[in-house]
Amino acid sequence: QVQLQQSGPGLVKPSQTLSVTCTVSGGSITTSYYAWSWIRQPPGKGLEWMGVIFYDDSTYYNPSLKSRTSISRDTSKNQFSLHLNSVTPEDTAVYYCARIFVADTMYDYWGQGTQVTVSA
């Protein structure tokens, strides 16, 4: 069974870098059938797609966040990470990792969510 386990700090200071990691079990992040994404939900708002990393380490980002976002991976640990720099209080949100079945672009597994608050 596939599981996505998130880890990361709950509080980040403004101007710092927010990093959240998603450790995958029950499947490899290097298989071509799937891609691995980050999505966030600010309080009182809808879901916002942030970016995706594919089996070949290629990445794509939401244009509105591209200048501040990067997604990396560690294949030896079967995990991928989100890095969002120069954060402001507007980046306060619940951050989710999720798996995408590439053939139909549907999300099929999600992490538990990480509440990240940006505050001094």
Q: How would you describe this protein?
A:
- It is a single chain.
- With 120 residues, the chain is mainly beta.
- The protein is 0% helix and 52% strand.
- The chain has no helices and 11 strands.
- The chain has strands at residues 3-7, 11-12, 18-25, 34-41, 48-53, 59-61, 69-74, 79-84, 93-101, 106-110, 114-118.
- The strands form 2 sheets. Strands 2, 4, 5, 6, 9, 10 and 11 form a 7-stranded mixed sheet that branches. Strands 1-3-8-7 form a 4-stranded antiparallel sheet, with no helix packed on it.
- A hairpin with a 5-residue loop joins β5 (48-53) and β6.
- The radius of gyration is 14 Å and the shape is globular.
- The model has no long low-confidence stretch (mean pLDDT 97).
Name a few traits of the molecule.
120 residues; mainly beta; four-stranded antiparallel β-sheet
Shape: globular
Please summarize the sheet with the most strands.
Answer: 7 strands, mixed
Content-based structural category:
mainly beta
Order of helices and strands: EEEEEEEEEEE
Q: What are the SSEs and their pairings?
A:
Elements: E1 3-7, E2 11-12, E3 18-25, E4 34-41, E5 48-53, E6 59-61, E7 69-74, E8 79-84, E9 93-101, E10 106-110, E11 114-118
Parallel strand pairs: 2-11
Antiparallel strand pairs: 1-3, 3-8, 4-5, 4-9, 5-6, 7-8, 9-10, 9-11
